[in-house]
Structure to design on (210 residues):
């Protein structure tokens, strides 16, 4: 082995040792903590039962990284700020809890693949992102849902709600907190819209605007 080769190997080894001694940066993990819905003081719930299918999510949120937009037509992702769990799972759970608190149905459960209930709700978390353009930092969250009468096999109601909320501080913790609050607002609007539809009886399939 000549001196040139030995010197090269020594340099590589020193670089590897320096790299091993450097600080490794691990991603920070976040979970949605959507505030609970207040229990409503109302009469007996409707006798119908409901199953809620796990909400779907757009492909750009499936990677697990928290998303942001520097402009309406562009989207980026934090490298070291990620979701610890799929956000759609948190939204599904919050919707089930809200429907139970609102007492719109006698029984609300998660869909398990079996058709045992009177109605089936499907939903989608359309948007969940930080907005970094147009002034102050904000978040945008959008949710869409659909209710099917399983006995008739027909869609009896659809709804969409979207909320934009300001972020109090320029850090990711505040961004996630604002997302929690925005999703709480979306779910409240959807549950209120569904309550109104059911109060007037099932109507034709049309877009409900909370």
């Amino acid at each position: 082995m000549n001196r040139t080769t030995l010197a090269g190997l020594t340099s590589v080894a020193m670089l590897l040792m320096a790299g091993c001694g450097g600080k490794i940066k691990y991603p920070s993990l976040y979970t949605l903590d959507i505030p609970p819905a207040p229990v409503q003081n109302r009469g007996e719930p409707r006798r119908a039962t409901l199953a809620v299918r796990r909400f779907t999510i757009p492909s750009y949120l499936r990677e697990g990284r928290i998303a942001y937009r520097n402009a309406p037509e562009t989207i980026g992702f934090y490298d070291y700020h990620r979701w610890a769990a799929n956000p759609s799972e948190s939204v599904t759970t919050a919707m089930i809890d809200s429907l139970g608190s609102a007492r719109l149905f006698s029984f609300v459960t998660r869909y398990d693949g079996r058709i045992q209930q009177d109605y089936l709700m499907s939903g989608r978390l359309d948007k969940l992102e930080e907005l970094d353009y147009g002034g102050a930092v904000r978040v945008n969250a959008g949710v869409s849902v659909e209710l099917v009468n399983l006995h008739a096999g027909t869609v009896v109601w659809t709804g969409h709600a979207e909320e934009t909320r300001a972020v109090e501080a320029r850090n990711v913790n505040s961004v996630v907190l604002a997302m929690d609050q925005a999703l709480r607002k979306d779910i409240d609007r959807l549950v209120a819209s569904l309550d109104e539809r059911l109060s007037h009886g099932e109507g034709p399939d049309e877009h409900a605007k909370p």
